[in-house]
Amino acid sequence: MTPSTASKVFPAPEHNHDLCLDEAMARARKAFEDKGLKLTPLRQAVFQEIAAASHRAIGAYDVLERMAARGERLAPISVYRAIDALVAAGIVHRFESRNAFFACHAGHEQRQLVLACERCNSVAEVDGARVFAAIDRTADAASFSASGKTAVVEVWGLCANCSGRDTRHAQS
Ligand SMILES: [Zn+2]
Ligand SMILES: [Zn+2]
Ligand SMILES: [Zn+2]
User: Which end of the chain is less crowded, N or C, counting CB atoms within 10 A of the terminal residue's CB?
Assistant: First the structure.
């Protein structure tokens, strides 16, 4: 994974999200292909709905409601199953502390740190390798055998767009 700039981590609210969507969809297709799985029309539609939330996490129920609003009435169980398949493929992540889901826009192998903005509700991922290494070391020092299942560490705060802290990019 290439290191992303601060502006890239949390894209500006007015950025062209269509580009993110295209990129995410291409990655989704590849992820399913690589695993020999099918990105069925339902999975694709559910992914589109989650990704359309524009870097925000949404609940499974919201996905269901939004699809219903567009005339796609689906059984909750089929939507939940589709979400499970997307999570398993690694293109959607579960946002544990909110019981919600967000589309992956990072493209990564390693475990990520999830940064969540308290004001605009944006969610972004950054490389978590060092954090997870520290967690493993700390657990080890306590003679605790970490299972490696700790996949997500969530950090709450304010994104650069909301705090105005990212002066390097604020001029444009
Ligand atoms: Zn975007
Ligand atoms: Zn991701
Ligand atoms: Zn924010």
Answer: C
Q: What is the DSSP string of 48-86?
A: HHHHTT-SB-B-HHHHHHHHHHTT----HHHHHHHHHHH
Q: Which ligand is nearest to the CA of 105?
A: 2
Question: Which ligand is nearest the CA of 156, by number?
Answer: 3
| 143 Cα: distance to centroid of ligand 2 (angstroms) | 30
Ligand 2 geometric centre to CA of 118 (Å): 19
- Say how many domains are in the chain: 1
Ligand 2 centroid to Cα of residue 26, in Å, is 14
pLDDT for residue 168: 59
Whether 1 is in a domain gets the answer: no
H or E segment to which residue 21 belongs: helix 17-34
- Residue 131 sits in a domain whose CATH number is 1.10.10.10
Mean pLDDT in order along the chain per 10 residues (172 residues): 55 93 94 93 96 95 94 93 94 90 86 91 91 90 82 88 72 45
